[in-house]
Structures are given as C-alpha cells and as structure tokens.
Design a protein that fits this description.
The structure is a single chain. This protein has 42 helices and no strands. The chain is extended and about 130 Å long. It is an all-alpha fold and about 800 residues long. About 25% of the residues are buried.
Length: about 800
C-alpha cells in the first residue's frame, strides 16, 4: 500500500462516514481520546483494527513478491500494532484475536520482517505480557527464538524482557508455581540439540542465578548439566560461569569508602583501658601522638581482618557447585570427557579446573586425576600455575597420601633444584607449602630440611617461599625441622593427624576462655599494673575506692559476677587499718602456700590457716579491736587479704560459675561473653604484634593460624598466590615506556661547562668552600697535607726517565 493510501485510512472522510467530526486526528491523539471515552470511540477502534488487518495482508503479499518491502508500510504497520496493544485493556472483546495474530507473525515471519517492524511487534508483545494479557509461559519460548535471529537490538530487547519479567515476578514474594513452569521450559530448551537456543537459555539461567533470583538447587544443577552438552559453544559458557562466579562475586562485594567505614564501626574489637591509657598518657608529646596514631591503625587493621573473616563465611565462598546432587558422578563423567575430548587447550584447562574445584569442595576421591596431572607438571608447561593450583585444590585430608605422593615428588623434582630458574623454584616451594597445608603427611624429614636451605637464597621470592614453608611446619610438626629452624613453637610435640583420623569436639569452642577468664585478666601487660599496686595495698585498702581496678569490660558485663561478691569487696574496703597491718605477713605466707597447693587447696587449707592466725592475733589485741574483727571474721575466712590471692579467688569464682549448674547448659550471656573474650584475645595479639603491648614469654599466640580443612576447601586458590614476590620480566615496549616516563619534566641534555657558563646566579658550592672561614686546626692540617703532597712530587721529579744516552 502506498503512503498516500495509508494516510487516507485515517483521513477526515473516513471519520465523517463513521459519524465523527471532520478534523484530522493522529494515532497518539486518538489514543488519548479513546482512553477518556472508550464507549464513544468503539467505531474508530474497529476501523483502525480493520486497517491493521488489511495492511498486514498487503504486507505479506508484497513480501511474497519481492525481497524488499516498503519502509513506509512497515513503519505504519508497527505504529498500528503499538496503538492496538495500548487499547486492548479498554476493548478486550473487540481485540481478543490481536495477541495471537502478533505472536503468529513473530513466530512465522520474524526472519523476513524488517528490523524496525520486528522491534515494534516485539514491543507490542512485551506490553501485552506486562499487562498480563499474554502468559509469560506462552511468550518465553517465543522470546528465546527472537534472541537467535541475528538482530542485536532485538536480542538485547528480548533478553532484558525475560530477565526483568522474572525478577519483577519474584520481587515481593516468590511465586514457586510460575517459577517451576518457566524453569521447566528453559531446562527443556537447554537439553535440546539446537546450539543457539540452548546457549541463550543457558545465558538467561546464569544471569538469574547470578542475580540470586533463581538461587536454588534446581537451577544450579541445570547449569552444571550444561557442561555435558554436545556443543562446545554451550559447554564453554557453563564452565566459565562455574569458574568465574566466585571471582565476580568477590569483585562485586568490594566495599566503597563509606561502606568500609560503616562495616568497620560495626566490627567488634576489644582493647583494654590500660592499653589506651599507655598510648595517650605515657611518654613525650611526640611519642604520645605516634602511639595514638599507631593504636588507631592497629584497631582499623584488626577490624578489617574481622570483616574479611566474616565475608569469607558469607557469599564469597559460595559456588554453584555446592548444590550438586551427585557430585561424584558429575566429576567422573566430566573427567572421562576430558580424557577423550579433542578440544583446544583453554577448554581442557577449564574442565580441569572445574573437576579440581568440585573434588576439593565436596571432598571427593578421584584417584586417576593425580597421575593425569603428573604428565603436565613441568616448568615450561603453558599455564603451569593454573595446573598447580588445580592439583592443590584437589588435595584434602580424605585422599590417601600414597595417591598424591607421585605428583608431589614430580613438583619437587621438576621445580626445586639448583639448576632451575629462581621463578620456578619459588613457584615450586609455594606449591609444596600449599599441598602440605592440606596434606601434611606428604612431607618427610630429609626433604623438608633440604627445602629449608633455600632460605639463604639471594632471590627474595625464593627465600620468602622457603621461610613460609618453615613457618608452616613450626606449627604442624616442628620435629621435622632442624633445631635452629624450629624457633619457639607452641607445642614441640605437635604431630599432624594420621590418615583417617577425625577430631571430635567434646566441648563448646571457646569454653576454656570462659573458664580461665580471671587468669586472662591477670596475664600479659596487666601484670605490671598489679605488681605496682602490690606496693601500695596497705594504703589503698583503707580508702573509699578499691585497691585494685579490674577492667570494666571484663566484669561489668559478666552475668556470673554476683551481688554477694560485691558486698564482700565493700566490707573488705571498710576493714580497720590496724587489723590489716597486723595480718600482712600472714597474708604473704598464705599466698605462697596457696600458689603451691593449687586452686583447690586455697578454699580449704588456706582459709583454715588464716582463721587460726587471725584468732591468735585477736587474743593479744584490745577488746575494741577484737570486737571489730569479730564482725569481719566471716569475710576474712572467705577471701584472703593478699592482692594476688584475691585475684586468683575471683578468677576461680568466675571460672566455676558456668559449671555450677547441674545441666551444664550455657546461656546466651555465656556465649556472648565467649565472643567478647575471643575478640579481646585477638585485640591483645594484634597490639603485641605491632609493638603496642609487651609480648608475654609464656604467650601461646602466633601470627600464623592454620585454617581448617573446611575453610581451605571453601575458598578458591588463586594461582597468583603461587607467584608471589616474583618479578615479571618487562618487554621492550614496557622498558621504553618506563624510560620515557622518567624523562618527563626534564630539559634537553647540555654539557656541564655550558651550564656553568650560562649560570647567572651566585657562586657554586665548590667555590664557596674556598671562601669559608676555616678553623685553625683545619688550616694547619690542610697546610700539612699540602706540604706532604709537594714533598712526594719533588721526590719523584728527579727520577724521571729522560732517554738512553748515545755513548753507552
């Protein structure tokens, strides 16, 4: 139909014949009037609908006769389709066949339609789906087909509609019935042999899973099953999604500055008041400023470490492979395909990584995997660090050491020897350390001592890798090291677990901190404070305030600290000064005896002896003091007057409080207290590492903490970690770029003589030295030096060779 005919369909004559005014109306203006008065414009709607049908029939005839169609007709047909799509809610009966007609056009003639008309009809269909006139289940298959036509604009439009529609459907609440229907359609398309449809279905599933819309086991297993598709163009996106999920999640979860500050404020770090006091009130003004700044840096770094440890427990450690229903079958099937496939090297490397990640994540046993890796472990192998990282991830404590030992020896023999390059030695030592971290039974004494000798290497990467291996075995098994490399281990008799050995927890983790709460208060840097307080105990016990100041964070929140203890302390504070002075010597003797006999004897024998000593003293004192002591004799029997005994008794009371109950069940306050004690212990350890707190000689805290098997398997090993501290060789272009960057801001080259001649300022430094007023001693030494030099010149001047005489 020519454009003139198309415009004639909505001409004033056509509306006059239908009983309307003779003014000319456009489609947007007619649309607005129909929305205001649907019943009064029903005739115009039917007229426009007949125009649409006739125009569509004419367009099909033109398409059958010629390959190209009239762009004006296609544009007009698209406008009519959009107009009717907007009007269908107001005229549902008159336009009941319109959705089916638009869908049929896209299904049958989508490839032959012009790009603009395809987009208009697709937009009309999307509008009908959004208004719930067309069910999403009916249109999902259509939009998957539209994505494989080859039109980039239409592919983006269809993909965005499918994802956005499902996200909007699950925004407020999850509609499981519709989700299952849509998932069934996509899963069916994913299993088809047609490559393009399966790939687009996989892309939709991956995007919905990454956005955590369909974050269930069913979707994850469907994505994993795509690894076995016959087409490599479907298998490769599935493998890359499984491998890149954790990397993308880690990148997306990096906090900005404000979020980092907010999370650091919410983190829990306990630092005692004494440590803050030392940082603010001890030393000169400059040292106090430095200590304050260093304390703030330590607290921020500790909060950052706590935030990272919480993130590791969260979504960063998640992988779709955790949802596998049959992980062992998945690994065996994928490994059999790896051994028989003829794919390119990159695809086989991706399959290898997925297999290793699944083995480590689910603690599977695939004994044929390690000899397969052994063939490719060589320094000149392409992407050898990825191969080593895959082999390390496949190691866990449930694999027999005999199965991994050939691979372990291959790494040592190929990488770590005197003729190998420093880069290869560093990578080999790092790989050995990571494998021993997961399977310590692989290492023997002779091999470890040979590898430890690389700590003297002049290459920084090699020496650091060797020292990290020594540090690991200081914690795991110090007896394998020579005596000078053992350092000061926590437990000299530490041994790795035997194969198959399982440690079963017999108590609540951290209960020992709750039991030894009093001992933790009296240890470390607080010891100096208590020693200093011992010298003034006689003067301070008579005052209104207590002689010793426990930390508020240790006792203010402790639920086990009863009111009876507080009353005892108050009564002790109000005791008579003379009675306390008389009993000082007896208190010291009782403290020494109670330290030797243990905490159990303190309550029995110490109290009896104290009681006898007090009774003997009281008989010789006047009656006034005797009556005063009789009031406090019960308190004197309950606790000792020595400060150290008081501390130990308070620690025993607090330690026995959780276990006094018959049921042995900890309350929420106890778990909260355990959490606080753990945070306080980490805080003291961090301060001692940064030099803000004196390290205790008997302290058992170390800078290196061995992670558990679950923590190692949950996190993916980055191959870059194996190349730490290795200097990469620069190419010629990079070297030239560095040279040019160093020349920026410099003038052209000039000789020094030319620069001196152009100089317009004062004298040079060398000229100024000659004009300086030198001290008398310097003048004399310079004169003596000049005389010596002249004497040496005169001495050699007469012996100069003047030639051979002619007559000799």
């Amino acid at each position: 139909m020519p454009p003139a005919t198309a415009s004639y369909l909505l001409s004033p004559e056509s509306f006059t014949a239908s009983g309307q005014g003779a003014e000319k109306l456009s489609l947007p203006m007619l649309q607005s009037r129909m929305k205001m008065d649907p019943e009064g414009h029903e005739t115009e709607l039917l007229l426009v609908y007949r125009h649409f049908k006739s125009t569509l029939q004419l367009f099909k005839q033109q398409s059958a006769l010629s390959a190209t169609s009239d762009p004006a007709v296609s544009k007009y047909l698209g406008d009519l389709a959009m107009f009717l799509a907007h009007m269908i809610p107001f005229y549902p009966l008159d336009l009941a066949e319109f959705p089916r007609q638009v869908s049929d056009i896209l299904r049958t003639n989508a490839r032959t339609l012009p790009s603009s008309l395809r987009c208009h009809l697709s937009q009309a269909t999307i509008l009908l789906v959004n208004r719930k006139i067309i069910d999403p289940e009916e249109s999902l298959d259509l939009f998957i087909d539209l994505q494989i036509i080859g039109d980039r604009t239409l592919r983006k439009l269809a993909f965005f509609h499918v994802v956005h529609n499902i996200r909007r459907m699950n925004k407020k609440h999850r509609n499981n019935a519709k989700n299952q229907k849509l998932q069934t359609i996509l899963f069916r398309i994913l299993q088809e042999e047609e490559e393009l449809r399966a790939r687009r279905s996989l892309v939709v599933l991956c995007d919905l899973h990454r956005r955590k819309v369909w974050f269930d086991d069913r979707t994850a297993n469907a994505i994993c099953s795509a690894c076995f598709h016959n087409s490599s163009r479907v298998m490769v996106p599935a493998l890359s999604f499984l491998l890149g999920y954790e990397c993308n999640d880690a990148c997306d979860s990096e906090d900005s500055g404000s979020e980092e500050d907010e999370s650091s404020r919410n983190s829990q770090v306990v630092v005692s008041k004494e440590q803050i006091y030392k940082a603010q009130h001890m030393g000169t003004a400059s040292s106090k400023r430095k200590k304050k700044a260093k304390l703030q840096r330590v607290i921020l770094s500790m909060k950052k470490q706590q935030r990272k440890s919480e993130e590791k427990k969260g979504s960063n450690s998640y992988s779709p492979l955790t949802h596998l229903k049959d992980a062992q079958g998945f690994v065996e099937k994928l490994f059999s395909r790896l051994r028989t496939c003829n794919e390119r090297f990159e695809v086989r490397m991706m399959m290898l990584k997925v297999i290793a990640r699944t083995i480590g994540l689910h603690h599977l046993i695939l004994l044929n995997f390690y000899p397969f890796l052994q063939k490719y472990v060589q320094p000149h192998q392409r992407e050898v660090t990825n191969l080593l990282a895959a082999g390390i991830q496949a190691c866990h404590d449930e694999v027999p050491p005999d199965a991994v030992e050939p691979l372990f020896k291959q790494i040592v023999n190929q990488f770590v020897h005197d003729r190998s390059r420093p880069e290869a030695i560093a990578v080999g030592l790092n790989a050995v350390r990571e494998m021993c971290l997961r399977m310590p039974l692989l290492m023997n004494e002779d091999l470890l001592q040979d590898l430890a000798l690389y700590k003297k290497s002049h290459e920084k990467a090699v020496s650091i890798a060797a020292r990290s291996l020594i540090t690991l075995f200081r914690e795991i098994c110090p007896s394998l090291l020579v005596k000078k490399d053992r350092g000061r281990p926590i437990d000299p008799k530490a041994r790795p677990k035997a194969f198959g050995e399982v440690s079963v927890a017999s108590e609540v983790p951290g209960i020992e901190l709750l039991q030894h709460d009093g001992e933790l208060i009296a240890s470390g840097s607080d010891e100096d404070m208590y020693d200093a307080a011992d010298t003034e105990v006689n003067h301070s016990l008579g005052s209104d305030e207590p002689a010793f100041d426990f930390e508020e964070e240790d006792y203010a929140e402790d639920e086990d600290y009863s009111e009876e203890d507080g009353e005892d302390y108050d009564e002790l504070d109000t005791a008579d000064d003379d009675a306390i002075d008389d009993n000082d010597d007896l208190d010291d003797n009782d403290a020494q005896e109670s330290e030797n006999e243990g905490s159990a004897d303190v309550d029995d024998s110490g109290d009896d002896e104290c009681k006898n000593c007090v009774s003997e003293k009281v008989e010789d004192e006047p009656r006034r003091k005797k009556r005063k002591l009789e009031v406090h004799v019960g308190n004197l029997n309950a606790v000792d007057l020595s400060l150290r005994v008081l501390k130990r008794l308070s620690g025993i009371k607090i330690a026995k409080a959780p276990t006094n109950e018959d049921d042995g069940i900890l309350s929420n306050e106890d778990f909260k207290r355990i959490k606080e004690l753990k945070a306080k212990k980490e805080g003291k350890h961090g301060l001692s590492q940064h030099g803000l707190l004196n390290k205790d000689a008997n302290s058992t805290s170390t800078a290196f903490k061995i992670p558990s098997s679950e923590q190692l398997s949950a996190k993916r090993l980055d191959p870059v970690k194996l190349e730490a501290y290795i200097r990469s060789k620069l190419s010629k272009e990079e070297k030239l770029a560095m040279v040019r960057a160093g020349r920026e801001g410099r003038g052209p080259y000039q000789a020094r003589a030319a620069v001196k001649q152009k100089k317009t300022g004062g004298l040079s430094n060398r000229q100024r030295e000659h004009r300086k007023m030198m001290p008398l001693a310097a003048k004399r030494s310079r004169a003596a030096r000049t005389r010596r030099e002249k004497k040496q010149l005169r001495k050699h001047a007469d012996k100069q060779f003047r030639g051979r005489k002619a007559w000799k």
